[in-house]
Write a structure and sequence with these properties.
alpha/beta; 4-stranded antiparallel sheet; 7 strands; 31% helix
């Protein structure tokens, strides 16, 4: 039996973008709170319930993680993934707001070592108070 391929991966407009990602050296991305990002990404109620029960705190690159930084669920998507940025020269993670402190702190446990965090005073103070 022939293996199925994703037609989108072969689209003339998608392949150049994926090639660009594989050769990039810099990434700028956000960090979000798990519940907010699950709704924004349109995950179904079953996954949303699982993320609540598993105590997901944050999301980056479609990866939902808990306080310890363990990946709980990965949204299936085409584009930049957490594993892709491991080889990048520079990774800039951007997040602000005291309410994102736990998401930020937990993400930094799994962030590539070359990650530079850009945040605001509210988030920084909330993280430092722990």
């Amino acid at each position: 039996m022939r293996a199925l391929t994703t037609p989108l991966l072969n689209e003339p407009t998608v392949k150049p973008v994926l090639d660009l990602i594989s050769h990039a050296g810099v990434a700028i991305h956000g960090i979000g709170k798990a519940g907010d990002m699950a709704r924004r990404r349109g995950v179904n109620e079953e996954i949303l319930s699982y993320l609540r029960k598993a105590k997901a705190v944050g999301e980056a690159f479609g990866s939902f993680y808990n306080r310890e930084g363990r990946i709980l669920y990965q949204v299936h998507r085409i584009g930049l993934q957490l594993n892709d940025v491991q080889h990048f020269n520079h990774v800039f993670a951007v997040a602000s707001g005291h309410d994102k402190a736990q998401a930020i702190e937990s993400y930094m446990k799994i962030a590539p070592h070359q990650t530079i965090l850009i945040t605001d005073e509210g988030a920084a103070n909330a993280i430092l108070k722990k």
